[in-house]
Amino acid sequence: MAELRGVLASFNRVSLRVLVFDARIQRESSFTEQDLHRLDKLDIPGGGGTDFHPVLEACDQQPPQP
Question: How far apart are CA 19 and CA 15, in angstroms?
């Protein structure tokens, strides 16, 4: 979380798309610099195997914005 907090605190008008996953995407959230307080409440479930394919497919369907 410290890395996400650092990115949000360092830039104005930034939006982060966070995908929480293990074998599948568990949750997708968006954060801006005004959402720093929400990071402390971000629940990260999982515990299964890790598979990056669902994340890569999600990025193909909705590419990151420059």
Answer: 13
Q: Is residue 15 part of a domain?
A: yes
Give residue-wise pLDDT tens across range 13-66: 888 888 989 888 988 989 888 888 888 888 887 677 899 999 999 999 998 877
Residue 54, in any domain of the structure: yes
Q: Rounded distance, CA 56 to CA 11, Å? A: 25
Domain that holds residue 57: 2-61
pTM value is 0.75
Q: What are phi and psi of 62, to 5 degrees?
A: -135, 85
- Reduced 3-state DSSP string for 22-60: CCCEEEEEEEEHHHHHHHCCCCCCCCCCCCCHHHHHHHH
